[in-house]
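Page 37, continued from 36.
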């Protein structure tokens, strides 16, 4: 007979971080790319209990139990800039529901399309670390891995340069007119005098 030491021991009070009960009501997951990073939004909807739970990056933001009305909306904030997000719950047919996410009052798809016009994103690997650099074109704010960077703007012969540092590396975003009205201004990230390709999506 084996001693108690070599058989696995399961304690009743040890539950995994995501309990099975939680996962059964998980109805929607969205990944939302904002200037301070990509945020995961999860939504639980208990259609028998009316329970609604919203998680942002694994942290519970809203919990409502025993909601009589199964349709409606839940509004909350996402990210460092406290961007407004709303989950709409609509009945499709019978007991089927549709869940849509709005960011700043726009559908997620429209918001991301608009965002691709108002921001530039670069992903780079420096000194063994991954960096996600985002330029907000309307404000010229630069974000890196979730933090707004200290920058210094400078006018140069063919446009502007927005300087900042990543560790001991000198970086700047060069803004130059494309000469074409449809394209407008072209933004390029330069790190240690090397151009970094823009990230897709």
């Amino acid at each position: 007979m084996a001693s108690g030491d070599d058989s696995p021991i399961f304690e009743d009070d040890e539950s995994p971080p995501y309990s099975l009960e939680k996962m059964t009501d998980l109805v929607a997951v969205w990944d939302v790319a904002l200037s301070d990073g990509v945020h995961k939004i999860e939504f639980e909807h208990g259609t028998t209990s009316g329970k609604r739970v919203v998680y942002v990056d694994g942290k519970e933001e809203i919990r409502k139990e025993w909601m009589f009305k199964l349709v409606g909306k839940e509004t909350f904030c996402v990210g460092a800039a406290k961007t407004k997000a709303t989950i709409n719950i609509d009945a499709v047919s019978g007991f089927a529901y549709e869940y849509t996410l709005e960011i700043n009052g726009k559908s997620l798809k429209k918001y991301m399309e608009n965002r691709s016009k108002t921001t530039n994103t670069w992903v780079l690997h420096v000194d063994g670390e991954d960096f996600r650099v985002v330029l907000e074109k309307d404000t010229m704010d630069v974000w890196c891995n979730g933090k707004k960077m200290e920058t210094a703007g400078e006018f140069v012969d063919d446009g502007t340069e927005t300087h900042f540092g990543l560790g001991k590396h000198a970086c700047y975003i060069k803004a130059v007119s494309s000469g074409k009205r449809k394209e407008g201004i072209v933004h390029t990230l330069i790190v240690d005098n090397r151009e970094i390709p823009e990230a897709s999506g």
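The two ends are 59 Å apart (CA to CA). Flag for discussion at group meeting. Residues 1-22 have pLDDT under 50 and may be disordered.
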